[in-house]
Amino acid sequence: MASSKKKSSGDRIAYQEFGSQTNRATERPVPELPPSEHNLRVQASRKGRKGKTVTVISGFQAKPETLSALAKRLKSQCGTGGTAKADTIEIQGDHKQKIVEILAKEGYKAKISGG
Question: N or C: which end of the chain has fewer CB within 10 A?
Fold first, then answer.
């Protein structure tokens, strides 16, 4: 029996219409503002969450790494879960007042928005 070796097709290109793979468009740079220049809005929301209340902090202009690190600190301070999405942080539960206090200690300008 002859053993046949398969070539990996990971580096081969079968069809390519527009230029080479190395000429990809670069990602849009996100300006990293200092905390004092952010105008953050903190609000409680239940829309699209099956009745569960979530505190949403929006208005960030920071890199995703900075945003996820801040989300981790907020989650540990509130003792709940949450996530960092695009330019917002979502913390489970209604923690508006507590989050505004924590953000003020960190140097962010934050206001409670909505009812």
Answer: N
